Structure formats: structure tokens, C-alpha cells
Amino acid sequence: xxxxxxxxxxxxxxxxxxxxxxxxxxxxxxxxxxxxxxxxxxxxxxxxxxxxxxxxxxxxxxxxxxxxxxxxxxxxxxxxxxxxxxxxxxxxxxxxxxxxxxxxxxxxxxxxxxxxxxxxxxxxxxxxxxxxxxxxxxxxxxxxxxxxxxxxxxxxxxxxxxxxxxxxxxxxxxxxxxxxxxxxxxxxxxxxxxxxxxxxxxxxxxxxxxxxxxxxxxxxxxxxxxxxxxxxxxxxxxxxxxxxxxxxxxxxxxxxxxxxxxxxxxxxxxxxxxxxxxxxxxxxxxxxxxxxxxxxxxxxxxxxxxxxxxxxxxxxxxxxxxxxxxxxxxxxxxxxxxxxxxxxxxxxxxxxxxxxxxxxxxxxxxxxxxxxxxxxxxxxxxxxxxxxxxxxxxxxxxxxxxxxxxxxxxxxxxxxxxxxxxxxxxxxxxxxxxxxxxxxxxxxxxxxxxxxxxxxxx
Amino acid sequence: xxxxxxxxxxxxxxxxxxxxxxxxxxxxxxxxxxxxxxxxxxxxxxxxxxxxxxxxxxxxxxxxxxxxxxxxxxxxxxxxxxxxxxxxxxxxxxxxxxxxxxxxxxxxxxxxxxxxxxxxxxxxxxxxxxxxxxxxxxxxxxxxxxxxxxxxxx
Lengths: 458, 154
Hints:
The complex is a heterodimer of chains A (458) and B (154). Chain A has 458 residues and is of the alpha+beta class. Helices cover 41% and strands 17% of the residues of chain A. Chain B has one domain. In chain B, strands 2-1-3-5-4 form a five-stranded mixed β-sheet, covered by helices on one side. Chain B is of the alpha/beta class and 154 residues long. In chain B, 32% of the residues lie in helices and 21% in strands. The termini of chain B are close together.
């Protein structure tokens, strides 16, 4: 008997294949192939393939070509206390989604309720992650798409203030993470199951108040500028999946809800949604149990939880042309900036009310158990579930990243966008396809560790 | 008082990519060198934070591994305050915002320090947990002496 490894080999070439336009001998058939082997301005290695024949969309694939990283496999046997610090390494852009989701799952398994100040500190950190991730994507990776520019360097040359403010906002997000996370923004070291190793002082948090006040104004200004962009009118009837919390715009916890009536606890997530292995991608795809794609991320959150935004965030949303829902994937750049405004306001509110907790963490004792956790990563819901034995050693780990879940919906967007853009020339169509994927701010390297493996040794 | 920085860019755990942080550690351990008042830091190479870090500095010397196709251990000196760094040579992440992009972004925004010297050391082995290539170890010793010369007037 044996276990393990049969892996899907990604075939990514270094340069984009030349465009191919073929006239069949009959003169009647024409095939257009759009192929991008290495997507730029996304995190990780992704590729897309679209084939159109005789004006009909025949094939469309979004491939994640990062090699799998086997996190779920090598967590087995590790202590439950180690897991959050290990899962945090899944991503350098959104480590909180992995760190906090794992912590919550362990606390769920062991019946731990953290205190309000600990919960507030976690929410402040997560606001920091939203700010730095949203601004990096919206202003530096996504905005050039709408301005016909190649990259953020060109944007800096034409709009210095936006880039300067975006860099400062990104630093603000990192500062929030560093002050609470033990001096590290990328992979914080001060967090643990049950709370924190060391409580940040009021003074250290208060020092960020002026920056947050500036951050609210700066993100409003960027949102307003992006509101002047010309947007495709493409929309889809998205099945929006997000967390919802009774008292706040959900970030760190809540129930899983959708705009089609699903309302379930996190532990039931995989009763309604499933992970499927598709041959053309190294990450498991997310589907509903009814075999429909679904959307998670800023537009889903906004659509499901608009009413819980602050008055100011709603005013900004209205001013930039958003309604109370958003089904236009290209306008996710606006939603990200509205959420950035919200995150700055929310972090400021929490810091204003912050009282240092008496104890930095709640003690835990391992027991044979199972726990579930979910948070709203900047790019969508991130699900964790773990089983541990009586010594707290992990028996099974399941992690579903938002980008993996969004893959089928990204492919459906590709289909829809291409179908409406067939009159574009090859370069413009290719750019439109890339932009369609960038709408999701895909975090590809986070997603490609989810391939389930089987090995037979004889 | 002038603000002078030395940045050792890279990841200590990724073989040849650790050459920058390794040099930062060597300089930090030298009390006589540190007495010059130079800020010595290892750095991951994340572009946005680099821009903030060197903003307002008078002089910056940086050492980073590079992957440009040259022979392993080759040392290149770039006067980054006066010449563009080649895109893609100092690769950091797939978000493509690395040392070179950070330098060019600062130049565009008008915040590049007036003196910036970048040493690139060609690497070959970037595997996590692997040992540094012998030729990069030799290059590290040469660069250490050269970097000290860069600060000789202090």
C-alpha cells in the first residue's frame, strides 16, 4: 500500500504564442485563437486560452499553472498551534486570510471564544490587509488597463499624485499589520491560536490615527478618479457568495450567505459548495453543489452587504456611479476603493475604541475535534477546516482559496466578454481577456496547492 | 546629518539570493563599520517598501542577487542614480514590482536619492534551503571589500 504523487504538469512557455488566424481552404471557416501563456500584473503564474471558430466561441480556459505546494498534505501530523503560522506562508499578499482562518478553525474546534479587544485587534489587522492589497491591485496593477497604459511606471509618469498616494496607502496598510503583528507586515509573528503573544499598546495604535484620517481622504480621491474611467457594460447574473455578520460589514467572521438565499454556518460550506479537479488547471475549482459557478470577492461582498457600509462609503459609492449591487466585473476596481475607504474608517473607529485586553490570549487544551474557519480575503472567502487528534496533531486539512473558487466564474466571464468583443482586433481582444482576469485580482500562487494526489508504490 | 543606507536585498533561505542579506549581517556585526552611522538593513526586495525606505536618503548602496545570464558569481556595479536598471534582472515576485521597478518608480516620482549604487551578483542556485554557490561565496567576499570602499569617505 502506498500514497501519493501524480501531478499535473503545467506547460507554460516563456513568451506569448504569436496570434494565429487561419483561413480554411474552403474560405468559409475562420479560427481565431487568443493565447496568453504568462499573464502579467497578477500574483502567480496563470494562462488563458480562447478559441473562436466562425464567430462562435468554441473553447475558453483559464489555467493556473503554478505547481501544487501540498500544504494540506504536509500539515498532517503538525501541532494545531503551528498551523496558522504555516498556512500564512501560502500567500505574501493576503497572509491574514490563511493565518486567521486557521486560528478560527482551531478555536472553533476547541470551543474557544476570544475577547472583544482581541477580536477588534484582528479586525484592525485585516483592515490593514484589505488596504494594502486593494490599493496594490486597484491603483498599481488594474488602473493601467483603463488608461491604455502598460504598467504602473507609465501611470506614475502621467499621474504622479495617484501613485504617490497609492504607495502611501499601501504603507499604511502594512503599518497596521506591523504594529499589531509584531513588526512584520508580510507574515505577522505576534498572532496565535486564542489571541496574541504580546498586546500592542494604545499609544502604538493611536500613532496611526492621523494616517488613517489621511487614508480616508486619499482613498476617496483615488476612487473618484477611477470613477471617471470608461467601463464596459458587461454584466453577469452572478451567484454572489460572501460572509455576512449581523452587526458589521463582514471581514473576519460571519455566516456564509448568497444573493440566492443560501444562509449557512461556515461548517456547512462544503455541503453547498464543492471543489472539483479540472484537467487544465493545478488548482481545484469551486462550484455549487448544483454545478453552477459562483462569485466571491469585492463585488459579491458589496452586493450582499451594501447596507452595512458606512454612510461615507455609500456616498463615495454613489458618487463613482455604483448602485446598491455590482454585477459588472470591470467595476470591481471601484468596489475595491470603496472598501478601502471603509477599511480606513473601520480601523480608525476600532482604534478610537480600543482598550488593551487584560490577557493577550485565551489558553487552549487540545482534544480530538474538528473546526471550521472563514474570513473575507481581499479577493474573496477563504475556507479552512481541520481535524485534530487528542494530542492536537492535525489529521486532515482542507483549505479553499478565493481564486481557486472563482476559476469557473472567471472562465464564464471570459466566454461572455469574448462573445461581446468579437469585433475587436487580436491585440485589443487579447487585452480585454487579460483585463477580464485581472478584474478578479487573482492570487494564483495561493490557489495551486489544492490538487489532490494519489501515488501507488509497488 | 546625512542619511546613508546599506540594503542587502534578497532571501537568506534561497541560496544565492541570500547574498545581500548575508552581507548586511556581516556589516552589522562589525562595530567599527556601524560606528560610521550607516543604516544597515537586510530587505526582502518588496518594491513599495523599498521606495519608502530610501525616500529622503542622501546615499544608498544596495547588494542584490541577479539572474541575467552572466556567469555565476559575476559582479556588476550600477550607478542607479544616473542609469536605468534593467527590468527583470532583479526579479522579486510575480507582481513584478522588484528592486529595478522600485528604482525606476522613484526616479519617475522624483524621490530617488541623489547617490544610489547597486551591486548585482549573478546567482545560479535559488532553491529554498540550498547552499550558496561557491562562486557566489567568493563574490560576496569581493563585494564586501568594494562596499566598504563605497563608504570610505565617512
